Amino acid sequence: MEEAACAAIAPQLKAGETSVGTAINISHLSPTPLGATVTATATVEEATERKFSFKVTATDSCGDKIGEGTHTRAIVKVDKFMQKVMEKLQVKPNDSPSL
């Protein structure tokens, strides 16, 4: 369902942008047999310049709705996002775990 939401707003992204999930609330409604095909849909319910809220659903090849919920994605600049990720990889001397 997250992937469906990501794909739904991909055409809105400018060069150097990506979207990141910021919230998800999913209810699992029904089991799905192994090997069944699952189709996920995401419908934009609300949109601002940098934030999209979705209604998401998943249906299996038996025709049953197997999940539903809400999902929120934010548009971010790839370079700034990756800079923050790289900063977290830096180990600071005072952050070393105690033994």
Automatic annotation (TrEMBL):
It holds the Pfam family FlK. Residues 1-78 form the Fluoroacetyl-CoA-specific thioesterase-like domain. It comes from Guillardia theta (strain CCMP2712) (Cryptophyte). This is Fluoroacetyl-CoA-specific thioesterase-like domain-containing protein. CDD domains: PaaI_thioesterase.
